[in-house]
Amino acid sequence: MKIRFITVFAIILSAHFVSAQEENKIDSISNNVIQSIYKDVPESIDSAAKRSAFKAYPYLFYTPESKLAFGAGGIYTFYTGKGAELKPSKIGFGGYYSTNKQYKISMNNTYYFANNKLYFHLPISYGLFINKYWGIGKDVSDYENSGYTVQTFAATLTFQLPPVWFSSDRTGIIIDYDFTEIVDKQNNGLLKNDSLPGSNGGQLIGIGADLVWDSRDNIFFPNKGGYQYFKVVFYPGFSDYTFANFELDVRHYRAFGKDHVLAGNFFLQSAIGETPFYKLPSVGGKQMRGYFYGRYRDNFFAMLQMEYRQYFTKKWGFVVFSSVGNVAPSILDYNFESVKYTYGAGLRYLFNKKEKINLRMDVGIGTEGSTGIYFGIEEVF
């Protein structure tokens, strides 16, 4: 029954999308749906109920670039021991193939060992698809020939231990690998400039660290608590480009009644050095629903979003949201007078009652009238 519902849900989404504007390319389908399949795992449960489980769902969508596409996603959860507090490990997967011969496959692996004292996270993705590049800066105009075809392979290994020198809940080491090939620049003249970092793709190897503070009462649908995440990744000389990325993600949740939640999220990202254009901090996607991810790019990006969430039946719920943010050459150049705004609403269907995991569909609208439809599992933040 769940698989049938999700198929119908995805078909309805696709029908809405066909009539949307040109900029409504649903980068969430090619990225968010695949990359966000159970990004985290359920909280610990009673040891007597610790059983492995498998869930899967099909979906389909349409964009002018990909044409009609068919996909599927799923997750396998299991336990590496019998401890009462041990969290479930998981192997998440997803993928799609389009009638225009575009595709993307992904695995999102998370493992807990030694009563949660050892943590491994390894997302992997491989794909060939059409992306877009409009240039760098907060004021770049719409560009008719912004499309280009890219083939990518990416994998990031995070290994976390209990902290020794920090007061965080977890601290870890990050190893990041990214191979990107610009298969076809099409008619995008901006990419024919060889002086643009990343205009011909490249191989990146990064080493970094992260810190996590997490007081949420539920990972998937928090009613209270907060989440703070900080990471830094350096890409040294043995990469094709030498640069560094910094990221800060702060979230807070407050309930006015059971599952009537106001959620807030502050997100900041910065790049220093010779950063490939496709690795630059960008407006769009999960951070600012309503813009195609990468519509505006630069060395610094900061945004604030708010969202109200509520169920109106046992299975169905809704959200309304708004965000404000912008890119800049640096934090000192950030201009609050020219920020971008987005707003929108979405539907929720309670996919897993026990863990409070929702299937979601959101419609976002940007400052210039751009729109985006986003489909996935679990909340955006």
Textual characterization of the structure:
This protein has 381 residues and is mainly β. It has one domain: membrane protein fhac: a member of the omp85/tpsb transporter family (Porin, Beta Barrel), CATH 2.40.160. Helix content is 7%, strand content 52%. The chain contains 2 helices and 16 strands. A 16-stranded antiparallel beta sheet has the order 1-2-3-4-5-6-7-8-9-10-11-12-13-14-15-16. A hairpin with a 7-residue loop joins strand 9 and strand 10. The protein starts with a helix and ends with a strand. The N terminus is likely disordered.
How does the major sheet shape up? 16 strands, antiparallel
C-alpha Rg, in Å? 20 Å
Proportion of residues in helical segments: under 10%
Shape: globular
CATH architecture annotation: Beta Barrel
CATH H-level homologous superfamily name: membrane protein fhac: a member of the omp85/tpsb transporter family
Spans with pLDDT under 50 lasting ≥5 residues? 1-45
Kindly summarize this structure in a few lines:
Helix content is 7%, strand content 52%. The protein has 381 residues and is mainly beta.
Helices and strands in order:
Elements: H1 2-18, H2 27-35, E1 53-63, E2 67-78, E3 89-98, E4 103-113, E5 118-132, E6 147-161, E7 170-184, E8 202-214, E9 225-235, E10 243-257, E11 260-273, E12 300-311, E13 316-328, E14 340-352, E15 357-366, E16 371-377
Antiparallel strand pairs: 1-2, 2-3, 3-4, 4-5, 5-6, 6-7, 7-8, 8-9, 9-10, 10-11, 11-12, 12-13, 13-14, 14-15, 15-16
